[in-house]
Design brief:
Number of helices: 3
CATH class of the largest domain: Alpha Beta
Radius of gyration: 19 Å
Number of domains: 2
Distance between the termini: 39 Å
CATH superfamily of the largest domain: Nucleoside Triphosphate Pyrophosphohydrolase
Helix content: 10-25%
Structural class: alpha+beta
Order of helices and strands: EEEEEEEHEEEEHH
CATH architecture of the largest domain: Alpha-Beta Complex
Strand content: 35-45%
Largest sheet: 5 strands, mixed
Shape: elongated
């Protein structure tokens, strides 16, 4: 059975504004050898699966610089200092889409990639959302809202229209939550 490794020392390497990179030396409990591992430390993140009263998902189309292409995603972002994940989810939904939810319910928390990341991504279901404002993009983003009928979600996942892994994971949590609806 695997055992936890002994953490010996951590050295911060780089602060990249939205995340920090560090190197930690760990000792293997099996061999006693010391190995360096790199970690990305970031604030907690949120994803929001927002549903209108017409059973449409509120989606965001935007250019992603890493992929160098337009993507279709659910709203989401960083949990700001002093904010709870639920507060961040409601704020991100309003900022990115102009929609406000009557209710924001947690449906799951995941680690983006346990090999590299130390933070979590919290997914929320926003029910009975209504458009109440304009999108508030900052200088580094440009987004557009698209409403996706929930009945078309599986097809958009299958055909690769929705490809962001953390978004797909959030939508899977939504499908699980929807399946357990009473």
């Amino acid at each position: 059975m695997p055992r936890p490794w002994e953490e010996l020392e951590t050295e911060p390497l780089e602060d990249c504004k939205v995340f920090r990179v560090s190197r930690t030396l760990f000792r293997s409990p099996r061999t006693g050898q010391v190995h360096p591992f790199f970690r990305i430390d970031a604030s907690e993140w949120v994803n929001v699966v927002a549903l209108t009263s017409h059973d449409e998902l509120v989606m965001v189309r935007q250019f992603r610089h890493g992929a160098r292409q337009l993507t279709l995603e659910i709203p989401g972002g960083i949990v700001d200092p002093g904010e709870t994940p639920a507060e961040a989810a409601a704020r991100e939904l309003l900022e990115e889409t102009g929609y406000r939810a009557s209710e924001v319910v947690p449906i799951g928390t995941l680690n983006p990639n346990p090999a590299l990341f130390g933070n979590g991504i919290h997914t929320f279901l926003a029910r009975r959302v209504e458009r109440v404002a304009e999108i508030r993009n900052d200088a580094a983003e440009e987004t557009a809202v698209e409403l996706l009928p929930a009945r078309d979600l599986a097809a958009r996942l299958a055909d690769g229209t929705i490809r962001h892994a953390l978004v797909v994971a959030g939508l899977y949590l939504y499908q699980i939550a929807r399946g357990h609806k009473t």
